[in-house]
Amino acid sequence: MIDAHQHYWRVARGDYGWLDRAPAAIRRDFLPADLAPLLAHHGIGRTILVQAAPTLAETRWLLELAARTPTVAGVVGWVDFDAPDAVDTIRDLARDRRLVGLRPMVQDLADDDWLARDALAPAFEAMIAEGLVFDALVLPRHLRRLERVLERHPALGVVVDHGAKPRIRERKIDDWRDDLERVAAHPQASCKLSGLVSEARDGDGARELGPWVDAIVDAFGPHRVLWGSDWPVVNLAGDYDRWRAISAEAIAPLPPAERMAILGGNAERVYLRRAA
User: Fold this and answer.
1) Does domain 2-275 have CATH number 3.20.20.140?
2) Residues 168, 46, 159, CA angle at the centre, nearest 5°?
3) Quick one: CA dihedral 35, 39, 40, 45, positive or negative?
4) Chain mean position to CA 164
């Protein structure tokens, strides 16, 4: 089993701007020793460590941390795609085989059309050349723009983080599901089954989240869905154990082979061929 989406951070590093505005429960250090008991309890052997700060310094710190943390199978880092030297930076970072993907923090950008800019093409092509996955940290309104990226770069592996953070609290599913299906029509796109409890109402469980989980699995199929905890952010909506239980119940009707694909096999295929 592989947790396809977790974070580590050390607050004193000082480049987590969003964390300054986050609830106190996660404004502290979260490091491998904190996650290890949870991974052991749930029988999860490896993780994909995902960036949490829009800086090269954090990406290099994560790669160093991964080098001494056996459970980290790969790192999804960050690069400024708008920088004149973006292609050179991608090539330089990719020398470390632990780097498996890159994640611009699209949800935080002021320009909703940023993803659709022609100027990003060299960075995407450099990712293709290096075998890196594009982690799409997007909101529902970005999905149509992401579709254009997929059309322009059919060889680019793309993983939608957190199901594009659907508006579960408002029970607004139809437009999100339609746009997600448009993204899923591109065979190089996958989607993480993660982060949903953070978008849900207090007390929502597998029954309430079931339609959203089903929409993701139906759109992408069980072999393009990757389970992730979004730890430690998930602690704001319960904890690792609660999300693990909710998601396990939600995918329980699937055949065992399909469940295991979601819980690890798909992450292995999507991310870890490069890291091997």
Assistant:
1) yes
2) 45
3) negative
4) 10
What's the DSSP call for residue 141? G
pLDDT at 274 over 70: no
| DSSP-derived 3-state class of residue 99 | strand
Neighbours of 273 (CB within 10 A): 11
Region for residue 80 given its phi and psi (left: phi exceeds 0; alpha: psi -120 to 50; beta: otherwise): beta
List pLDDT tens digits, range 92-113. Answer: 999 999 999 999 999 999 899 9
Diameter over CA atoms, the chain: 49
| 93 close to 59: Cβ distance less than 8 angstroms | yes
pLDDT for residue 121 is more than 90: yes
Cβ neighbour number for residue 187 with a 10 Å cutoff: 11
**Radius of gyration from C-alpha coordinates of the chain:** 17
Q: Rounded to whole angstroms, what are the CA distances from 119 to 82, 113, 114, 155?
A: 8, 12, 9, 18
Count other Cβ atoms within 10 Å, centred on residue 169.
11
